[in-house]
């Protein structure tokens, strides 16, 4: 994202709130306006991809204007990148609230896998957005100045719980934190990304609570047994 977009965001964030006790409107509450645009844009990009998404439709759904969206985000591509960043940020911020360091290593790993499964299950737009960016071969994510850093705490948390488990003798040696993260992500991601085709082929509804719960526990056990060795 270019410097102009960042400057616009900073300028928007610095605007004062309404005075005299009047209710703040969308026009002078840029943070709320931008959050609403990002929320609607996530669904639009997830459903239609970058090429198919329409700024007109996002503007209409958020009761804003194309001009305002371009003012905040610079372009459709700038908005798309902002949605990517916001989606990763939301997941990592929630993940930080798990307080994995307060749990025993195996319990911490279980909680992390369960959280990832539940997050993905409830966030199909996020999954579709990541799939769309992979179709772009990560072109727009490569332009982000924040996504890489947003994911550092996720790996640090895995490194910490794994080191504690290794010291306690409950985890085997030789497990790479990024590889473990990839394994957890892959299993939980597939459960949403492929549930329609997989479900049709095998006549199993992966959105049905009992089926989802069984799949969740299966993934937890797969990851635990892999690390326990």
From TrEMBL:
Organism: Pseudorhodoferax aquiterrae
Span list, region Disordered: 1-30
UniProt DNA-binding residue ranges: 54-73
Signal peptide: none
Designated name of the protein: TetR family transcriptional regulator
Amino acid composition bias (Basic and acidic residues), ranges on this chain: 17-26
UniProt cross-references to InterPro entries, sorted A to Z: Homeodomain-like_sf (IPR009057), HTH-type_TetR-like_transc_reg (IPR050109), HTH_TetR (IPR001647), NicS_C (IPR041474), Tet_transcr_reg_TetR-rel_C_sf (IPR036271)
Domain HTH tetR-type: 31-91
Highest taxon listed in the record's lineage: Bacteria
Statement: the UniProt record of this protein carries the keyword Transport: no
Alphabetically ordered keywords of this record: DNA-binding
Basic residues biased stretches: 1-12
């Amino acid at each position: 994202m270019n410097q102009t977009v960042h400057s616009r965001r900073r300028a928007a964030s610095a605007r004062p709130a309404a005075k005299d006790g009047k209710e703040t409107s969308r026009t002078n509450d840029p943070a709320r306006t931008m959050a609403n645009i990002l929320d609607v844009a996530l669904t639009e990009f997830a459903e239609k991809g970058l090429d198919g998404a329409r700024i007109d439709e996002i503007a209409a759904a958020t009761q804003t204007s194309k001009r305002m969206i371009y003012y905040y985000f610079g372009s459709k591509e700038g908005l798309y990148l902002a949605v990517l960043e916001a989606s990763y940020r939301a997941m990592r911020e929630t993940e930080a609230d798990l307080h994995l360091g307060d749990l025993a290593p195996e319990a911490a790993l279980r909680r992390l896998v369960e959280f990832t499964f539940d997050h993905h299950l409830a966030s199909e737009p996020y999954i579709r957005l990541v799939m769309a960016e992979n179709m772009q071969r990560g072109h727009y994510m490569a332009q982000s100045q924040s996504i890489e850093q947003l994911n550092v705490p996720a790996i640090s948390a895995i490194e910490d719980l794994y080191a504690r488990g290794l010291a306690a003798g409950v985890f085997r040696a030789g497990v790479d934190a990024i590889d473990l993260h990839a394994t957890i992500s892959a299993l939980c991601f597939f459960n949403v990304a492929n549930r329609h085709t997989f479900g049709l082929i095998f006549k199993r509804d992966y959105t049905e609570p009992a089926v989802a719960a069984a799949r969740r526990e299966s993934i937890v056990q797969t990851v635990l047994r892999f690390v326990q060795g």
